[in-house]
Amino acid sequence: MRRMRGRWWLAAIRPRREEGARVVWALPKGLIDAGERGIETAIREVLEETGIEARIVCKLGDVRYVYTWRGERVFKVVSFFLLRPLRGRLGEIPPGMELEIAEARWFPLEDAGARLSYHGEREMAAKAFATLNEG
Q: What is the CA angle 63-67-118, rounded to 5?
């Protein structure tokens, strides 16, 4: 999240997908590497997927869901953190990440409900909005 022109803005990504697949806007996320903690993963994934080096403000919460992959049910927990940018330029992602990420873009945080594709991520954006507008 960043504050610009009196508004909060959210960095979202458009993952690269097969030709003809629906357009998806999502929050940066990824798998925890060996020896990494969730917070470290969040910082790394934001840098890799957006080009922004950021710092953690707080944990927003977890999203839990189940999906089927290759005939197996998979239970997944994704932790989301509120981050603020330190340096970098949105969209200037490290070499090789363009295979995963088609685009990164700033959206007004209040538009996240209409922009983000996944219900749990829309909930996390609403939590971020509430957190940033407290007090």
A: 45
pTM: 0.90
Q: Is the pLDDT of residue 24 over 90?
A: yes
Q: How far is CA 123 from the centre of its chain?
A: 12
Q: What is the CATH number of the domain that holds 13?
A: 3.90.79.10
The beta-carbon contacts of 29-33 under 8 Å, at least 24 apart in sequence, are 29/78, 29/80
Domain that holds residue 118: 2-132
Q: What is the mean pLDDT of residues 1-16?
A: 95
Would you give the end-to-end CA distance of the chain in angstroms? 18
Q: How many domains does the chain have?
A: 1
| Mean pLDDT value across the chain | 94
d(CA 91, CA 102): 9
Q: What does the pLDDT read at residue 106?
A: 97
> What is the rounded distance in angstroms from the CA atom of residue 125 to the CA atom of residue 1?
10
* Three-class SS state of 86: strand
